[in-house]
Amino acid sequence: PFEKWEGYAISQLDILQSMTYQAVESKVELVIWPETAIPFYILSPVNQYYFLKIKNQVDSLGINLLSGIPDKIYYDANVPFPKSSKKDEYGNRYDTYNSSMLLCESKDTIQKYAKILLVPFAERVPFSEQLSFLNAMQWNFGLGGWGIGKDTTIFSFENSQGDEIRFANFICYESIYPGFVAKFVRRGAEFLSVITNDSWWGNTSGAYQHMRFAIYRAIENRRWIVRCANGGISCFIDPYGGIISSTDLFTRTILYGSVTPIQELTFYTKNVDWFAKMCILLATFIITA
Question: What tens digit of pLDDT does each residue of 81-126 get?
Fold first, then answer.
């Protein structure tokens, strides 16, 4: 997990781009790279050369690319900023986000999503909005101080038939929350994607357990799920929870698959945990009666 942050970032980008050239030898419409696949602020003006290198590849190959990225947003001097925000050497306030971006062929718009549900301490220190001094508890490569995303982004791209395809992207641990995922499906996601870095688990059961959470999200919402993991298990999951294909741990490879966009909403998607909440209320009433 530390290698991508402490190694030579440009060589990692070269690996990803080289694998993308291999991927499009088959007919591919969407390429997905994992969580923080690009381990530097690719959207920062100082890194424009590398951003254009990626964008030119997207345009020349005629694909759409979803990638995990760290993102940095500066606050205007006249706008109130969160107490938990950071300050650069010039006194400017900013926040960093564990994000994903979608680049589409021949389009200049960059669609972005910033992770909303952050892992306590590993990604954000609890109560750092109220107690800003807690932000000093950050790891050497910036984790522990991610900002909280605010937009439930629905990504969209056109397929080869000219149809608009809409999907949601969840970053790592967000995929374990049923109601959170259902919210994106209600907003129009026709399939779901999960990008993650599961190297933290090492060679333990954690990576397998994390992957299997996505099976429940597929069943609950009757949506295809594409999971792209760095150091973990990448896979395609059908709307009934079946794992169509998957990779091994710690294996550099390309996984191909097809998904079908679905628009119908299940009872669970519409009502989420209504039945469970009613059971809790009923049990509480019985106990206190």
Answer: 887 788 888 888 999 999 999 999 999 999 999 999 998 877 887 7
Q: Check if the beta carbon of residue 225 is closer than 8 Å to that of residue 185.
A: no
Of 4, 35, 55, 235, the catalytic one is 35
What DSSP element (H or E) covers 226?
strand 225-230
Greatest CA separation found in the chain?
69
3-state secondary structure of 74: strand
Q: Say which of 4, 104, 123, 172 is annotated catalytic.
A: 172
Q: Is 172 a catalytic residue?
A: yes
Please name the residues in contact with 158: beta carbons below 8 A apart, sequence gap of 6 or more: 104, 164, 165
pTM of the entire predicted model: 0.90
Query: Which one of the listed residues 4, 55, 112, 115 is annotated catalytic?
Result: 115
How far apart, in whole angstroms, are the C-alpha atoms of residue 110 and residue 248? 32
User: 56 near 287, Cβ under 8 Å?
Assistant: no
